[in-house]
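Translate structure to sequence.
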């Protein structure tokens, strides 16, 4: 698994639960190191050992944790670059949803060896969508559910999200757009601002 993915989990845990909790998780993982390097690729069994230790140490189901990781990736100022990448998908939430098919390619433009599984958006009816998350990264659909929820807040949209099973081997996230301008979204400018 790509180090950026493991590093995202690490950033979530240390930001939310503290560095000491992360150290406990890595000790329990018995991997022989304390941090993941963002630009390395790790064997899947190492990533899974870390994720199982996260689940045990946080005493929460892994799907819930991964959804929180997805929310963290969009809402935490530490990872503003990902939010910017996602916001380039459109001026409103529906535009953003339609841009998700291209997300793995856009991510690969930013990091050439980051291979995210495919995403496929199917519009079932006006305001009703299914997002197919193809296999390849464990917990991908849960992380994407958190991303979708946080991006709805970012755009000021009110949505209902539900993981509804699988279709042709892909996990399905059902998206119901209740109100596209429910609240004032977070501000976003195309031009980057200096830190």
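Result:
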């Amino acid at each position: 698994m790509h180090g950026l993915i493991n590093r995202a989990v690490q950033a979530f845990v240390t930001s939310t639960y503290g560095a000491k909790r992360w150290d406990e998780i890595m000790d329990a993982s018995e991997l022989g190191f304390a941090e993941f390097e963002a630009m390395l690729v790790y064997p899947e069994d190492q990533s899974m050992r870390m994720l199982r230790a996260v689940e045990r140490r946080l005493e929460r189901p892994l799907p819930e944790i991964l959804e929180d990781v997805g929310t963290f990736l969009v809402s935490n100022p530490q990872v503003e670059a990902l939010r910017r990448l996602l916001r380039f998908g459109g001026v409103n939430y529906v535009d953003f949803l339609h841009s998700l098919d291209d997300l793995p390619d856009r991510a690969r433009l930013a990091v050439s060896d980051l291979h995210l599984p495919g995403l496929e958006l199917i519009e079932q009816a006006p305001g009703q969508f299914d997002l197919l998350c193809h296999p390849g990264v464990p917990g991908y659909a849960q992380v994407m559910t958190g991303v979708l929820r946080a991006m709805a807040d970012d755009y000021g949209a009110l949505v209902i999200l539900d993981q509804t099973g699988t279709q042709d081997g892909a996990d399905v996230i059902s998206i119901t757009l209740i109100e596209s301008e429910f609240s004032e979204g977070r501000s976003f400018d195309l031009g980057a601002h200096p830190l």
